Amino acid sequence: MTHLTPFRAWHLGALDVQPEQAFTRSLMSHDYAEAHEGNAMTALIDGKPVACAGIAEFEGVLVAWAVLGVDAKPAMLAATRACDAVLGKAGRDVFTMVREGFAEGERWIRLLGFERTDDEAKRMPDGRDYLTWVRRDG
Predict the structure, then answer these.
(1) Which of 5, 32, 50, 138 could form a disulfide with 69 if both were Cys (CB 3.0 to 4.6 A apart)?
(2) CB-CB contact of 7 with 15 (8 Å)
């Protein structure tokens, strides 16, 4: 059974990250994770973190982030509903990035109401290109 709980820094460390997001391990230190406590949620299955997601503000821009585990599939309906509810309360546009060609990621953010921006792809630390998406407020 899926249980949603407020995000805690230890959740990221306990997450068995999906291969598509393995590079995030090097970007998300414990300090980074602690900074996101209070503005994110974690999906747990049998007490084990399987997905973490939240919204952070960077230089005045709201950015949605999510890290999914290999065991996240059974939690995706509940996680999607929770993400949609949080995004709907943001009160302004929210941006995110998805690796170019990552069909599952693109499908999920489309379900959440995001649309592609006209921005060119950006190279990220994993050496891959990422596309910017936005969920418009209102």
Answers:
(1) 50
(2) no
Element (H, E) at 5: strand 2-6
Q: Mind listing the pLDDT tens digit for each residue in 45-76?
A: 999 999 999 999 989 999 999 999 999 999 99
Enter the pTM of the model: 0.89
Residue 42: how many other CB atoms lie within 10 Å: 26
H helices present in the chain, as ranges: 9-14, 24-27, 30-35, 76-88, 103-111
- pLDDT grade for 22, boundaries at 50, 70 and 90: confident
Q: How many CA atoms, within 13 angstroms, populate the side-chain half-sphere of residue 86?
A: 23
